[in-house]
Design goal:
Chain lengths: 119, 231
C-alpha cells in the first residue's frame, strides 16, 4: 500500500513537470514537445540535486517499465484510417517500413563503427 | 459529464489496462518480436471496437486519460538517462553523428521513395517527419501544410514497425553494440523504439531516449530545408 502511494505521488510530480514543459513550449513557441522539455528539466534537476532521486524513482521506474501502455490509445486511432491503406495507399505502409529500416541501419551502424574504433 | 459518459470512460480505461496485461502475459509465454505487447493489445482493442461496434471517438472518452499519461511517461525517461549519465558522457560524438545521419536518411528515403511511387506533394510533406515522436511530426507537418492526422499514422507505423523488426534487422546487419542498437531504435522509431530498447537494457534504452530527443530537434530544424531540395 505504501508503495502504491509512493508511485502515485511520484507520478504526480512527473505530471507537474510535463505540464511545466508544455507551458514552456507554448510560451516560447518551441517545436520541441513539452514532454521532452520536461524530461530535460527533470534530468537537470536530478543532476544538480535539486530533485532527490527518491522523490521520483518508484513512479519513474513504473512508468518506464510500462511505457508502451501509454501509446496504445493513440495507436488504436488507426481504426479510422483503414481505407487509406486500400489500393495504392498500401505502398505508403511499405515505404514507411523500408525507410525506418534504413534509418535504423545507417544510424546504428555508423555510431557502432565510431564507438568500436574508439574502444 | 453524464453518468453514462463516465461509465464508458472507466470501462475503456480498465479494458485497455486489462488487455495490456493480457498481452504482456502472452508476450512472456511466446517471446517473439511480433508478439510485442503493444501490438497485440492494439489489435485486440481494434477488433473489439470493430465487432461491437464502438467508434474510436467513444473509446477515447476513456482512452484520452491514458493518452494524457504519455507526457509524464516521457518525462520519466530522465530517470534511466540520469542513472547512466557517466557512461553516456563518453559517447557524445557517436551519439550525435549517428542521430544526425539517421535524421537525414529518414527524411530523404521516405520522401524519395514516395515520390518515386508517384504520390503527390501533400503526401511527401506528410511522410517527411515520420521518424520522430507524434507531437513533433504533427507540428512539422502542420507548418509544411501536409496532412497532420496522417502524419500521426506514419509515425505509428515507423514506431511499431521498428520495434517489431529491430532484432531481425540487427542480426542481419551485425549491429550488436548497445550504442548502435539504441541509436538505431531511437532514431527510427522514437518512443515506441525506446520502449523496445528498454526491454533489452537500461543503457540501450537511455541511449535510445537521447537519440529520440536529439532527432526530434534535428528533424524539426532540417525538414523544411530538405523539402526544398527533395521536392
Amino acid at each position: 500500500m505504501v508503495k502504491v502511494m509512493k508511485i502515485t505521488l511520484h507520478i504526480i510530480i512527473l505530471c507537474l513537470l510535463a505540464s511545466l514543459g508544455n507551458w514552456i513550449q507554448h510560451t516560447f513557441h518551441l517545436l520541441i514537445p513539452g514532454s521532452v522539455i520536461g524530461m530535460i528539466i527533470l534530468f537537470i534537476l536530478l543532476f544538480f540535486n535539486i530533485v532527490k532521486l527518491s522523490w521520483i524513482d518508484e513512479g519513474a521506474k513504473f512508468m518506464v517499465r510500462h511505457l508502451t501502455l501509454f501509446f496504445i490509445p493513440a495507436t488504436v486511432g488507426i481504426i479510422d484510417y483503414f481505407d487509406l491503406f486500400l489500393g495504392k495507399g498500401i505502398l505508403l505502409f511499405f515505404i514507411v517500413i523500408i525507410s525506418t529500416i534504413l534509418v535504423m541501419v545507417s544510424s546504428g551502424w555508423i555510431s557502432q563503427w565510431l564507438i568500436m574504433r574508439k574502444e | 459529464m453524464s453518468m453514462i459518459h463516465l461509465l464508458i470512460g472507466i470501462t475503456a480505461i480498465i479494458g485497455t489496462v486489462i488487455t495490456y496485461y493480457a498481452a504482456l502475459k502472452i508476450h512472456h509465454k511466446y517471446h517473439y518480436p511480433f508478439t510485442l505487447p503493444m501490438l497485440i493489445a492494439t489489435i485486440i482493442i481494434v477488433l473489439i471496437l470493430l465487432i461491437i461496434p464502438i467508434s474510436y471517438e467513444t473509446y477515447m472518452i476513456g482512452g484520452e486519460w491514458i493518452n494524457k499519461l504519455l507526457g509524464p511517461a516521457v518525462v520519466a525517461l530522465a530517470y534511466p538517462l540520469y542513472m547512466e549519465r557517466k557512461l553516456l558522457k563518453k559517447m557524445v560524438v557517436p551519439i550525435l553523428v549517428g542521430t544526425c545521419i539517421g535524421a537525414l536518411v529518414g527524411i530523404s528515403t521516405g520522401v524519395l521513395l514516395a515520390k518515386w511511387a508517384g504520390f503527390g506533394e501533400e503526401i511527401l510533406l506528410t511522410i517527411s517527419s515520420k521518424s520522430v515522436t507524434t507531437p513533433i511530426s504533427m507540428a512539422i507537418t502542420e507548418s509544411l501544410d501536409g496532412i497532420t492526422s496522417l502524419a500521426a499514422i506514419f509515425v505509428m507505423i515507423a514506431g511499431v514497425g521498428g520495434a517489431v523488426l529491430h532484432s531481425y534487422v540487427y542480426k542481419y546487419t551485425k549491429i550488436h553494440h548497445y550504442l548502435g542498437k539504441g541509436i538505431g531504435l531511437g532514431s527510427a522509431s522514437h518512443g515506441i523504439g525506446t520502449a523496445a530498447a528498454l526491454e533489452n537494457s537500461q543503457l540501450e534504452g537511455s541511449i535510445s531516449s537521447i537519440a529520440m530527443s536529439i532527432s526530434a530537434v534535428v528533424v524539426s530544424v532540417i525538414t523544411p530545408w530538405m523539402m526544398n531540395l527533395l521536392l
